[in-house]
Amino acid sequence: MFLAKACNGYDLIYGASSLSAKDRAGIEHGLIRPMAERTWRSTDRVGPKKG
After folding, report:
1. What residue segments make up the domains of the chain, in order of their start?
2. What is the separation of C-alpha 1 from the centre of its chain, rounded to a whole number of angstroms?
């Protein structure tokens, strides 16, 4: 749930002139990507087991 809120917040400020390319890269690589990777690793991507 937090990942969705963080992405939404980032989407709202992405075009702000006060954010530099370095700031964006820091947010993307230091916050968003690690949270997404952790979520990806912690979910069952194969689906429910049958039987």
Report:
1. 1-8+19-38
2. 11
